Amino acid sequence: MIQLSLQPILALVAGILILVQPRLLNYIVAIYLIVVGILGLVGGV
Question: TM segments (predicted)?
Answer without folding.
Answer: 24-42
